[in-house]
Write a structure and sequence with these properties.
CATH class of the largest domain: Alpha Beta
Number of strands: 8
Structural class: alpha/beta
Order of helices and strands: EHEHHEHEHEEEHEHHHHH
CATH architecture of the largest domain: 3-Layer(aba) Sandwich
Strand content: 5-15%
Length: 284
């Protein structure tokens, strides 16, 4: 199960980063989305990341140019997946959307292709039935920003074959990242743990225990977290955190994972964090 040709579906926050690291690792990568504007924006973000890396001495100019040369874009899903060894869907955390997309991928990708979902919380078992070859389906949970974060969760369902798991682990190693293997349970390991801290921090703001800034400062200085839970919520996206909380409340425990009222209110107001310019903090 050699992976040389990678197709990433979704050129947004996660997809463009996954495409970047795969191309930097030497894979031929196709970045797909529904419009030319979307794929152009994703490609532009990859270029900006690489230029920043060159400016900081982390990437040399030849590596940047070679990475971009290995990246193509396409708005036709069938053509994008037709020759792929690995297809990674990186669309929003919406089960119906992912199921429709995975069914379309299964119809167009080679029978030998590995299909991966970048879900951060949805069980693979709720998606695998739309695939012809469920044994080739695996979860690859990357973290934002993908080109900087070292960890990838590899999620294996009861249907995932050992060969698929091993190919996924080899691919993550090729990217220069660390991996952990997690059983197919809603929230997996990192989302489940991170969400509990994040939700409790939001409840503390809601109850007036301390300000968002002081809660984050406490976790950075007291527990050596690189980023406070509310800063992290703004980075991940309040809407994403809400979707994960709703999934875990439904799948695991409606009390432990109940979304706080404040989180729902901020999302309803369009305050989604960094991507909207305001969440628990404001971003000029």
């Amino acid at each position: 199960m050699s992976i040389e040709r990678v197709t990433v579906i979704g050129a947004g926050t996660m997809g463009h980063g996954i495409a970047q690291v795969a191309a930097m690792a030497g894979c031929e990568v196709c970045l797909n989305d529904v419009s030319e504007a979307a794929v152009a924006a994703g490609l532009g973000r990859v270029g900006a990341n690489l230029d920043k890396g060159v400016a900081r001495g982390k990437v040399d100019a030849d590596q940047r140019d070679a990475t971009l040369a290995r990246l193509t874009t396409n708005t036709d899903l069938g053509r994008a997946v037709a020759a792929a060894d690995l297809v990674v869907e990186a669309v929003p955390e919406d089960l119906d959307l992912k199921r429709r997309l995975l069914a379309a991928i299964a119809a167009g990708a080679p029978a030998t292709a590995i299909v991966a979902t970048n879900t951060s919380s949805l069980p693979l078992s709720q998606m695998s039935d739309v695939l012809v070859h469920a044994e080739r389906f695996v979860g690859l949970h990357f973290f934002n920003p993908v080109h900087l974060q070292p960890l990838v969760e590899v999620i294996v369902s009861e249907a995932t074959s050992a060969a698929t798991r091993d190919a996924a682990l080899a691919f993550i190693d090729r990217l220069g990242k660390e991996s952990i293997v997690v059983r197919d349970v809603a929230g997996f390991a990192t989302s489940r743990l991170g969400l509990v801290i994040g939700l409790e921090a939001i409840r503390m703001v809601e109850e007036g225990v301390a300000s968002a800034a002081d809660i984050d400062k406490a976790m950075r200085l007291g527990y050596r977290h690189p980023m406070g839970p509310l800063e992290l919520t703004d980075l991940v996206g309040l809407d994403v955190r809400l979707a994960i909380a709703e999934t875990l409340a439904r799948e695991l425990d409606p009390v432990r994972f109940a979304p706080p009222r404040l989180l729902r209110e901020l999302v309803a107001q369009g305050k989604l964090g960094r991507k909207s310019g305001e969440g628990f903090y404001r971003y000029p």
